[in-house]
Amino acid sequence: GRDVMWEIQRRAHELVTSLDSPAVIHGNSAYMMFKFCHHRGPWIVQVNDYEAAEAWRNASQTIGRYGSRRFVSLLWRRQKERKVLAKATRVVCNSNHVRNCIRRLYKIPSLADRLEVIRKGVDVTQFKRPNSLPSDPLAMMPMGHRLLFVGSNWRLKGLVTLLDAMVQIVEEFPNCCLTIVGPHPREEYPIVKAASKRGLASRIHFAGP
């Protein structure tokens, strides 16, 4: 969990400050690397999403989506992340979209020259299709009439926007259904609630995390 991540950062900082020569540092979450802002050597940080960067852009929407406590947390993360990005040697983003958002929302001089895109890779040879798949009430549906959403952070990744689009899609494809992969079971209720508001509750299927 997050406590483990902070402990790793603390130990890494102790190690780096004890070295005689500068080390090359790589941090997976940019906002957690603020303790290294005075590091003498090269350091590389990753930005995996633009959630913190856009928190203040529409405060009322963010509070409505996540609640005030989460909003304050995102503002703190935004402050730390911006400080880190202003000083890091290189900043790695996992997509062109994240890179463009970071450039636009932070407006840090020279940041564009230090941004790199390295997409997350998956070795597909490690995954084999099982001989028998779980029973899926949508399995008999023509593939052209099925939508798939994959992502655990469904609010940030646009599931609600997809539900809004489905309202129009079902007008042309009356049998259209949506399979959702990723969200934890405790997240299913707010998703069903959002789908129900749009008359789509019977059209969604949860495949699990």
The helix/strand order is: HEEHHEHHEEHEHE
Number of helices: 7
Low-confidence stretches: none
Average pLDDT score: 86
Main β-sheet, spatial strand arrangement: 1-2-3-4
Classify the helix fraction into a percent range: 25-40%
User: How large is the share of residues in beta strands?
Assistant: 5-15%
Described by the principal axes of the CA atoms, the overall outline is elongated
Radius of gyration: 21 Å
Compute the separation of the termini in Å. Answer: 17 Å
Describe the biggest sheet? 4 strands, parallel
The count of strands amounts to 7
Helix/strand-derived category reads alpha/beta
Explain how this protein is built.
Helices cover 39% and strands 14% of the residues. It has seven helices and seven strands. The strands form two sheets. It has a four-stranded parallel beta sheet. A three-stranded parallel beta sheet has the order 5-6-7, with helices on one face. Strand 6, helix 7 and strand 7 form a beta-alpha-beta unit.
What would the keywords be for this entry?
alpha/beta, 209 residues, four-stranded parallel sheet, three-stranded parallel sheet, 14% strand, single chain, 7 helices
Care to give the gist of this entry?
By secondary structure, this protein is of the alpha/beta class. Helix content is 39%, strand content 14%.
